[in-house]
Amino acid sequence: MFGTSRSRRKNVLSQVAIGTAAMLLFSAGGVAEAAEAPAAAARPDPNAAPPKVHGPEKTTRAATAGARPASGKTPKAAPLSRNAAPGGFQRVTSQKVQLTNTVTDPDGDQVNLTFEVWTADAAGKPVTKVKLNDSTYGVIVSPYVASGGTAKVDVPAGKLALNTNYVFRTNAYDGSLYETVWSPWAKFRVELPVDLTLPTPNYASPNPNHFDAQQPHYYQTKPLGQPGTPLSARATAAAKDAVEQCSEPDETGRQVCFGKSTPAPKGKAPHASAKAGVAAATAGVEWCNTDFESILATRFIECDVRSVPVIISMDGVPQAVAKFMFLRMIELDGQNTFTEHLTIEPAQQIPPAFREINFVGWNHLCENFCTPQEQPVTAWKGKPWWVPGEMHSATLTTPYTWDTSLAGTDYRFKPDIQIDANILAADGKIRPFKTGYQWSLDYDGGTEDLDRIRCDTPAADAPAGSVPGCVFVNVAPTYTFNAKAFPQAAAHAWLIQKATPKHPGSMTDQKPLYYMGDEAQNNRSRGRICPTGWATNNGDASALVDAGDTLNCDEFAFASSYNSGGMSSTEGGINPAIPPGKTTPSGDACISMYAKKHGSMIHLFSQNGADPTFNEVCGRAAISGMHNQESMGGHFANFMKQMRIKDKDAYWLDTRIDDGGTCTYGVGGGQPVICQLAAQ
Length: 680
Known about the structure:
single chain; mainly beta; eight-stranded antiparallel sheet; six-stranded mixed sheet; elongated; disordered N terminus
């Protein structure tokens, strides 16, 4: 998957430019005069009698006394898919088409068959005769076979088009007499299980920026084997383990509580026009705001926004409620530091049942080797208290530091905050109530570990330039292909991700890839899926970029992942590809494909005669080595470094390929995947 240099890509761009110039010079020359058109031939008639391709029948007494041979009633095309095409057409899964039919002769003579092919409409009615060779009749004659045998012919390459309806029929000859009628028509369609038309490469397209490619999401995706739910979307039910956080009731039974956070209807809560505090706290992070409750994260920023009610109750019955939006954003913005931005603002005007709500204390918590730098009350931007009618925001920024003195060390931190408030009722009959709110006691379901931070220091023998840093370890980053430059590799991954049940790397299907860093295991997994010589034996040179390019076997899921079909379960693999009756993973259990120029475009085709079920767990494709290597190579190495990927870390794959709704049968359900793809 690695190795081709950037200079190689530049050479290709230069060759493309030279080739384009040459084409322009050639096209500027003279135009050849058109040859005189030949006289129009008689239009073939599907109702015509069978031609006597062997000449006139023999007139000997023995011949005329014999009985005529007969074609079978069920001609067949091959190789056939397990599924017929729409309209009852036999579905042929190879561009190497074979036509067959049985044939008999009452006299026991050897016989052959003449095969005639026509294009057909959707109902199977013949439309245009296909000239299968340069003979007078454009038909193919089989070798002689014994009476009762099956006659077979191979259709020459290029005579039949993909994704086109055809019908064929046969006529028998025993060396003396012809069958006087045609066999019944047989309908077939050359339709490969995989036929992806690829976009034209643009080798000038730059590789995507890994940081820019990270989009916030709410999927909690723990490293493989970590305890707890490995992947969960935000729950719509009650928050997991969330509790009301209340003061002790007074002698009259009155108390105040921070209620459990509940989703705020989007666009319903009114807000003040001035939000200077929020703007300062989330500068450059547009998706982190108090418009509605949410929890979103990237590898380096986590934003948790909650709608939290402040409740005055009597004997457990609410008497008054003030709704606040709490926003906590944590930025992993330094080598040995990270920063918390806490914003509090009313979700609606403070009700008159309250005289004042005053946030009077705060206490940050973190594990050993992690130190919050507590800030004074003067550090708030906006006053942290409210009276009826007020809607302003208040923001407090708190830095954390962590110990980087030990080389080659990983830490896990989970920052927390306790917020204390004095709440005074408007009737003034009672003293102010003091209650507290602790962030870690009010998580929404399935998101309780999104804010778990992993910080690490480089090992003593780490490469030069390695620095300490932190990531949200349970937030999987996204690796993005350069599909505009290398569509062969991107299309292969797109197919396996979209059309097979494991959906490796798909965020939509919540099926992450898990990085596997053992080089020896990588080689074992790859060798099982892509044995030596497989690409050469199964590929097509028309897919190559230039004379320096060679065919490569591209495997997906990657050999450097625990998702690889080549990694057995005893080795820790989660999707081993085991052929029936075998115990060792093999590429024979994957969907096998190859890239080939067809017409003016490169296609990704399934191997001729293959009939995948699309229940396979992996794919392998014989493609351009340049596309294979440069789609990963240094681009993936940079992703690993920038996203601080370690063994068993989860990540997503964005293939940057889209079918635009062009797929003949859609994608999935076991039907052929025939699409016109575009690069994004």
